[in-house]
Design a protein that fits this description.
Length: 210
């Protein structure tokens, strides 16, 4: 019998109960190229099922890792082939406004590899980091390497925690999410600072030319 899923994970029980590994792979895959889907929560729920003996934890981790890497690479392909025009036209449907896109692209230009890895842990960036990497012109092999690293760390963290922590995972998730919000705010401040510095540089250069 499947264990009862605590709190916000409970609504995923029918999906996992009926489709198991397929549900994990599909939800993580589509989330990673911009579709609003509970990729992180289904990964945690699958870890709980594995801890109760309903799923194999190694299979859950392997499927989630493959889906995360493939999904981000689909996003990279969308960004690389569709370009900024595509993002500006369709980005609002995945909450990627032109302003958010511009700020995120500033990060990728300066800190590409690190951002790809860290973005995996930040809600909002996780869903669009492949698209932005593609539009910003990051080399594909570089993106693939850092993306795989981020996916391995992300999958490893949540499958291990949920497998070992059991029903206490919701309290752990809430605590991590609280600090994740602070990290996201810090990234936003840093992005604004980078944009401001660039604007000031352009103004100084224009004054010198005048």
């Amino acid at each position: 019998m499947a264990p009862p899923l605590p709190g916000p994970l409970a609504h995923l029980a029918p999906l996992l109960g009926h489709y198991g590994y397929w549900a994990v792979g599909a939800v993580v895959l589509v989330e990673d190229f911009g579709v609003p889907a509970p990729g992180e929560t289904i990964l945690i729920a699958a870890g709980l099922y594995a801890g109760a003996g309903r799923l194999d934890i190694v299979a859950v981790a392997a499927i989630a890792f493959a889906a995360a890497v493939i999904g981000d690479n689909v996003g990279y392909l969308i960004g690389h082939t569709g370009g900024r025009a595509f993002v500006h036209r369709w980005g609002r449907y995945v909450f990627l406004t032109p302003e958010r896109f511009r700020m995120a692209e500033e990060f990728f230009v300066r800190h590409g590899g690190k951002i790809v890895t860290v973005a995996r842990f930040v809600e909002g960036l996780r869903q669009v980091n492949g698209i932005i990497a593609g539009t910003s012109g990051m080399p594909w092999l570089r993106f693939l390497a850092f993306n795989a690293l981020g996916a391995a760390l992300w999958v490893g963290l949540w499958t291990s925690l949920s497998y070992l922590a059991g029903t206490h995972i919701t309290a752990i998730y809430d605590e991590i999410s609280r600090y994740q919000l602070y990290a996201l705010i810090a990234l936003g401040v840093l992005a604004a600072a980078l944009v401001l510095r660039r604007v000031l540089r352009h103004r100084r250069r224009d004054r010198r030319q005048d």
